[in-house]
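Q: How would the structure tokens look for this protein?
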Amino acid sequence: MDPRMKELARRLVRYCVKTQPGEKVLIETAEGETTPLVELLVDEIYAAGAKPFVQYEIASVNRRLLRQCSQEQMMLQYQGYGELLKNMDATIGIRGLINAAEMSDVPKEGMDCYSKAKAMLRQYRRDKKWVLLRYPNNAIAQLANMSLEAYEDFYYSVCNLDYAQMKEDALPLQQLMERTDRVHIEGPGTDLTFSIKDIPVVRCCGEMNIPDGEVFTAPVRDSVNGVITFNLPSVYRDICFENIRLVFKDGKIVEATSNHTEELNWILDTDEGSRYTGEFSFGINPNVRKCTNDGSIDEKMWGSIHLTPGNFCEGASNGNISEIHWDLVLAQTPEYGGGKIYFDEVLIRENGRFVPEELQGLNI
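A: Here is the predicted structure in token form.
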């Protein structure tokens, strides 16, 4: 057993969800190959004096269900899942990945049923402690254009770092964002402005996602204007989107193009809130320095920001509600074309590096 996996299991149980004696912890996992980590988590939860539970979903089975499913069928299936969640104190979600395109040929109607059923589970997750992570395997390594060995070295370096120190270093950025009204983002194909005034700001430093490293808030819902072009690919509903360009007017996405423009607009038409934004965030993980084609990791990239069509994040509500939450990443380091970010007309970050003296702890 890789000792780094043992360290990760302990971190997930003890630090991320802070498991206490007598609590019930649900391990949610997507593929059978995650079993070694699941076994370690079960042992670690028992060692903490708590009770582990396990829920498996397999992508290839889901694909067959969704190709001919009905909404009633999916709601009934996940209703039982919801009852289990309701009785939990915490969840640890392990996202396995065998084939990143497994759902790519599921009809729109099936994906809509799935999305609505999963959205129903939110009511059962409220007030629960939770953490999400990927499992390092050949498929995710291939997606990142790495050997498995190289990916594992990268993965554990970004998962098992000193998150307590990161949280301390990120405090000045949180405080600055809390004092900020207007944000202005500039870069290749990007000139975007919005307000974050009076929206709460949250530091994410290893307590909800692994790997972690971001400081997020949300734009005032109707304040976003201009254009933004995202330079990192994004896999959503098993479709790989590239060069996503969004035009905003008074908060709403009025034009959207990409290499899959039709599918992009289909997603953005999910509901009223899906053409408005629910999150704006800085990526601050110093060990994520290049694109891995995995949004859950790329959104933490040092020198990046992400802007999110769809539902707001818990803790930083701007009132926008949607079934979708899609983190789209813009890297602004020199190798990705650079860029500038201004707070109330003061330069805060240039080409990925923070400018103010109080934010130098976040630079590398």
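The chain has two domains: 3-159, 163-362.

The two ends are 32 Å apart (CA to CA).

Upvote if useful.
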